[in-house]
From TrEMBL:
Pfam families on file: DUF4367
Protein name: Outer membrane lipoprotein-sorting protein
UniProtKB keywords: Lipoprotein
DUF4367 domain ranges (all copies): 231-334
Presence of keyword Lipoprotein: yes
Upper taxonomic lineage: Bacteria, Bacillati, Bacillota, Bacilli, Bacillales
Amino acid sequence: MHRSKWLLMTIVIIFMVFLSGCGTKDSNDVVSDLEDQLADLDSYQAVGTMKIQTGETVQEYNVQVWYKQPHFYRIELNNLNTKVTQIVLKNDDGVFVLDPAIKKSFRFKSDWPESSGQPYLFESLVKSVIDDKDRVFAKEEGNYVFQVKANYQNQSLTAQKVWFGKDLQPIRVEIYDPNEVKLVEMVFSKFEFDSKFDDDAFEMNRNLEGWDQTSLPAMKNMDNSKSFGIIEPSYIPTGVEKKDLKVVNQDNERKVVLKYGGEFNYSLIESRPQVRVASAPENSKSDIIDLGYGIGVLTEMTETRSLRWTYDGVEYLLTGDLPTEEMVAIAKSVFAQTGK
């Protein structure tokens, strides 16, 4: 009798443990669900806020993402510090960086975003979880939380923490440097799978020409004239010095040309181009670069590379034999400089 009682108690305990485990998911279960969701992904839209620590300043963006199979993207980035809105568009014609306030577009061929992760894209976040076999998993307030390696262009971003809701929608992302200092934070206020979009939602002309200009933030000191001040980068790489500065008129456009030489040789051209639609060379390789206060396009050619970006209505073209990290540092140093 005594033995039967202990056997019954053992069975009850095992049954209770089994019941307590029902409905709960471990790391492998959630990863498997994320893999299935990614494989079946048809479309989604997301809205959120992204904060990026750039030196002593925090750049804050309102972010809106649209995605539709197989490769259609529309990412709207509104920098609340600089009051500048940019749109990254991908469709059958390539990848575009649009500046709606000045109706400027730059087109290039790229495998973006596969070439570089983005904290506001569902695919990038899920892949970072799937690819990291040393991921750390936890559950917080009904959400699934993963600590994984970060895979971004900025090599100082080495680790990230990603929150997913019970329906696998991303909720929050925090990205850290090697010293565990948080440099990027993305918070999603809305995320919806299986979204429907207009037929022309991802077309360049609609996104560039369809803007109500009165709804766009006014760009500081921007006008429609060809005149602008000379803006010199505050950063020059070690072993490099300025060789020349000249102002030229070419194709009825005023251009400022700064030339540097030494350890690296490069030029920086500043202009307010009248041509609003431009493209990278067909045989080049291009990618989107985060400059902290905005985005630029890095183009790799046979012996040189170039970085192109727009700020305050002025287009900058940096070309030379510089490493990418040095080009980004120069571009960032242009920000907040005042024309002479």
